[in-house]
Amino acid sequence: MKKIIDILMTVLLPVLMAYSLLGKDIHEWAGVAMFLLFILHHVLNFKWHKNLFRGKYSGVRILGTTVNLLIFLLMLSLMASGIIMSHYVFPFLSIESGASLARTVHLVASYWCYVLTSVHLGLHGGMIMGMLRKAFRMEKASSKRRIMLHIAAALLSVYGIYAFVQRGLADYMLLRTEFVFFDFLEPLAFFFLDYLAIMALFVILGYYAAKLLTKAQAGTDKLFHRKRRK
Question: 55 vs 32, which has greater pLDDT?
C-alpha cells in the first residue's frame, strides 16, 4: 500500500507542474488527489511523527527531517491557496478575497515542493535501490557497473541543470517573476522530459548528500570511539 501511494504521488508531481498545458480542471482534480495521497502517506508513516523527538539526530536525519517538515508546510499552503483559487472542485465556496496572494503563494510553493520532494526521494535512494534489487532479483552492482551508473547519473544531472535553467525554475522559486511561461506549441513529451530530468537531478543530489553525510557521520563516530579508548 505504501509503495503504491508513493508511486502515485511521484507520477502526479510532473502532471501537476503542467497545469496550463493539461487544463485547469485536470490540475485541480490532480491536486486534490495529491493532497489525499499526501494525508494517507502521513497516516501510514505515523511512526515517523511518533519518533520525531526520539533518538539521535545524525546529519542525514537532520536533513531528512528539515526537508519533510518543509514539504509538509508547502503542501498545506498549496491546498489552502488552491481552494481559494478553485473554479472546478470547490466553486461552491465562492471565496473572493485573497485570490492574488493565494496565486503568488501557490506559484512559489509548487516549485519549491517539486524540488524538495525530489530531494526527499533521493534521501531514500538507498532504500529504493534495495527494494528494486529485491523485486527484480538483481545482484549487487559490480565496480564496472557502479562506474557506469555514476557516469549515467552525471550525464542526467547535466541535462537536469540545463532543463532547470531553461525552464526558469529559479525565477519562480525566488519570485523573480509572477507569471509562468508555457509554450503551447511545444510537444507535451518535451515538457515532461525536462521536468523528469529536473526531478532526477534533485533525486541524485539528495542521494549523494545522504551518502556523504552518512560517511561523514561514520568517520566522526570512529574518531569519537578512538578518543574514548585513549
Answer: 32
DSSP 220: H
pTM tops 0.70, yes or no: yes
Q: Which helix (H) or strand (E) holds 23?
A: none
CA–CA distance, 32 with 45 (Å, rounded to integer)? 20
Q: Which of the two residues, 71 and 96, has the higher pLDDT score?
A: 71
Query: How many of the other CB atoms lie within 10 Å of CB of 40?
Result: 15
Q: How far apart are CA 100 and CA 8, in angstroms?
A: 30
Q: Parse the chain into domains and list their residue ranges.
A: 2-229
Measured CA to CA, the distance from residue 89 to residue 29 in angstroms comes to 7
Q: Which residues of 48-83 are buried (b: 16+ CB within 10 A; e: fewer)?
A: eeeeeeeeeebbbeebbeebbebbeebbebbbebbb
223 HSE (CA, 13 A, CB side) = 6
Q: Which of 173, 191, 185, 23 is nearest to 110 (CA)?
A: 173
The Cα–Cα gap between 120 and 165 comes to 21
